[in-house]
């Protein structure tokens, strides 16, 4: 028994881990899957998992786990942790203790929150920045109000990140770096995701009303951007925007994509705009707002 290195169980009615598990001292991979999903089975007291100190791969699918045990902090050689379609809270410092973790998958799970000033926060989100070996990240959080201000996703090679959405995507999209954000706040857009924007292949982005707070916007050096605003969609005013700079956007065709509707002033409002710079843009650029203070080069 001590020489067993891989154990995979498909057990939909499993209520507790077998006591013999603690004798598998050389176990490297443990997978417990209820392929019926739905979290129908409650798996109580999984603390003995922490005794499997050589474990490198740990995967649970479709169970009610209540919470990850503190003993998991001992799994310092763990390389892959996957929880899918599970109900499991994650106490603080459990994730950050898994210092060699390369793959983290947290999909469709209930997560422990901590109350702090400014609203609810998910404790483990702030611990991602401590995982220096992380190469693959799969995570979904339906409520963006709980996203900490200091979260950092680092720069993983592969990622599926859904924030503000249920974790669903067109399965025909064959990409290894996907990012879907709904009503993301301005500060998070910069502080949390700027590294990912350099590598993302599939992007679905819906900005929150906080974008109205922007006062200064610069967009430089893109060979993909074709327009900066879409008038065929619902538009909001930018009451604080004072400066807009567009530079070296080789594929830019127009500032405002779509027909300029009647009553444009009511659609695109820039009451504080004082400086618009258009530098090294294509000669055929159309629908550019005319305003004093425009510099074009």
Structure characterization notes:
- It contains 3 helices and 20 strands.
- The protein has 297 residues and is mainly β.
- The strands form 5 sheets. A 9-stranded parallel beta sheet has the order 1-2-4-6-8-11-12-13-14. The chain has a 4-stranded parallel beta sheet with strand order 15-17-19-20, with no helix packed on it. It has a 3-stranded parallel beta sheet with strand order 3-5-7, with no helix packed on it.
Descriptive key words:
single chain, 297 residues, mainly beta, 9-stranded parallel beta sheet, 20 strands
Quick overview of this protein structure:
This protein has 297 residues and is mainly beta. 5% of the residues lie in helices and 33% in strands.
Mean pLDDT level: 76
Overall number of strands: 20
In sequence order, what are the helices and strands, one letter per element?
EEEEEEEHEEEEEEHEEEEEHEE
- By helix and strand content, what is the structural category? mainly beta
The helical percent reads under 10%
- In DSSP terms (H or I, runs of 4 or more residues), the helix count works out at 3
Radius of gyration: 24 Å
Distance between the termini: 75 Å
- Uncertain spans, ≥5 residues at pLDDT below 50? 114-120, 288-294
Which secondary structure elements does this structure contain, and how are they paired or packed?
Layout: E1 6-10, E2 29-33, E3 41-42, E4 57-61, E5 63-67, E6 80-84, E7 87-89, H1 94-97, E8 103-107, E9 113-116, E10 119-122, E11 136-141, E12 158-163, E13 177-184, H2 186-191, E14 202-207, E15 216-222, E16 227-230, E17 243-249, E18 254-257, H3 264-267, E19 275-279, E20 294-296
Parallel strand pairs: 1-2, 2-4, 3-5, 4-6, 5-7, 6-8, 8-11, 11-12, 12-13, 13-14, 15-17, 16-18, 17-19, 19-20
Antiparallel strand pairs: 9-10
């Amino acid at each position: 028994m001590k020489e067993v290195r891989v154990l995979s169980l498909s057990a939909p009615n499993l209520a507790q881990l077998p006591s013999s598990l603690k004798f598998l001292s050389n176990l490297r991979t443990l997978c417990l899957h209820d392929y019926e999903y739905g979290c129908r089975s409650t798996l109580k007291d999984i603390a003995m998992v922490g005794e499997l100190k050589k474990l490198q791969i740990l995967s649970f699918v479709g169970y009610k786990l209540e919470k990850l045990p503190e003993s998991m902090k001992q799994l310092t050689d763990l390389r892959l942790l996957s929880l899918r379609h599970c109900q499991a809270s994650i106490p603080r410092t459990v994730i950050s203790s898994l210092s060699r973790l390369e793959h983290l998958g947290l999909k469709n799970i209930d997560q422990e929150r901590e109350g702090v000033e400014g609203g609810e926060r998910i404790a483990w989100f702030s611990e991602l920045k401590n995982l220096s070996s992380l190469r693959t990240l799969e995570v979904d959080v339906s409520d963006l109000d709980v996203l900490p201000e200091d979260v950092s996703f680092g720069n993983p090679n592969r990622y599926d990140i859904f924030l503000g959405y249920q974790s669903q995507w067109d399965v025909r999209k064959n990409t290894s770096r996907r990012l879907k954000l709904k009503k993301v706040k301005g500060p998070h857009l910069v502080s949390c995701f700027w590294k990912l924007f350099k590598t993302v292949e599939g992007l679905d982005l819906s900005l929150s009303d906080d974008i109205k707070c922007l006062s200064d916007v610069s967009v430089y050096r893109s060979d993909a951007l074709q327009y900066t605003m879409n008038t065929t969609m619902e538009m909001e005013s930018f009451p604080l925007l004072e400066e807009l700079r567009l530079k070296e956007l080789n594929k830019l065709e127009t500032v405002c994509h779509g027909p300029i509707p009647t009553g444009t002033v009511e659609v695109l409002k820039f009451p504080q705009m004082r400086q618009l710079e258009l530098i090294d843009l294509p000669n055929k650029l159309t629908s550019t707002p005319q305003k004093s203070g425009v510099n074009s080069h």
